[in-house]
Amino acid sequence: MTLSRHDLFDDVAVRLDGVSLRYDTSEDILSGIDLVLKPGSFSFLTGASGAGKTSLLKLLYLALKPSQGEVSLFGRPTSRLTRDQLSALRRRVGVVFQEFRLLDHLTAYENVALPLRVLGRKESTYRSDVEELLAWVGLGERMHARPPTLSGGEQQRVAIARAVVTQPDILIADEPTGNVDPEMGSRLMRLFLELNKRRATTVIIATHDLGLVRQVEAPVFRLQHGLLVQDVEYGPVARRRTDIAKAAE
Fold first, then answer.
1. Is 1 inside a domain boundary?
2. Collapsing DSSP states into helix, strand and coil, what is residue 222?
3. Do residues 194 and 242 share a domain?
4. Mean pLDDT of all residues in the chain?
5. What is the pLDDT of residues 55-70, one digit of tens each?
């Protein structure tokens, strides 16, 4: 019997059950979070600065452990897994960090190709893909430049290309358009949507840009005072209300 790219545990891509998080003796940053994301879903995470968006994303890609509750990826409760099993899950997750985490001694091309090298692939099998991806994010002529010579927006685009080059099962992006102009922001959004559509990648994007949110018919989750709510005012309902209002003018 031939299995699909998702194994038998993949009925749910992400599941949080009663997840709370606190640092040291502080109050809970996140409190009683319940969340289910199906494979191939696309969603946004919003909330004011300091609401806990980055902390929630770190829980999703297993950089943090919850103070209470359970985080499950691909149907597997992560608190019960060994270090090797956790590493195997992380390899199925692409992450766009706010701080980029590029290696200064590598070129843009080499930074993007690094995850594929780690997986043991030969350059001849991925060179054209990496070059095409860098061209897509507007860095075709800068692929041999090193991060210290790139602008903040260019570094961000390299980080995004690196996160998607492996075509991950889950893509987690923290403010991925924060350092680029609106035109490039829309172009990057098309890249995320293409990955979601063609590879059934589960995508969750944390953003302050509500204009970006309104471009896509997708669920919107909002963090407020440590709680997570689904916010229709920024999602498809709000978009349809706007369209109806314009038609009535």
1. no
2. strand
3. yes
4. 88
5. 999 999 999 999 999 9
Which domain does 145 fall in, by range?
102-167
H and E: helices and strands count for the chain = 8, 10
Q: Which of 68, 9, 108 is nearest to 226 (CA)?
A: 68
User: Is there a single domain that holds both residue 129 and residue 152?
Assistant: yes
Q: Number of structural domains, the chain?
A: 2
Largest CA distance in the chain: 60
Mean pLDDT of 25-42: 91
For residue 26, CA distances in Å to 23, 29, 38, 148 come to 6, 8, 32, 37
Burial class (CB in 10 A: 0-12, 13-18, 19+), 160: buried
Q: Are residues 129 and 66 in the same domain?
A: no
Instruction: For residue 247, give Cα distances in angstroms to 215, 233, 240, 243, 244.
Output: 18, 19, 11, 6, 5
Provide the whole-model pTM: 0.85
Same domain, 138 and 237: no
Q: Examine the pLDDT at 94 and tell me if it is beyond 70.
A: yes
Q: Please report, for the domain that includes residue 68, its CATH number.
A: 3.40.50.300
User: Which residues touch 152 (CB under 8 Å, ≥6 apart)?
Assistant: 179
Statement to judge: residues 153 and 178 lie in one domain: no
For 181-220, what is each residue's pLDDT tens digit?
Answer: 888 888 899 999 999 999 999 999 999 888 888 888 899 9
**What's the confidence (pLDDT) of residue 124?**
95
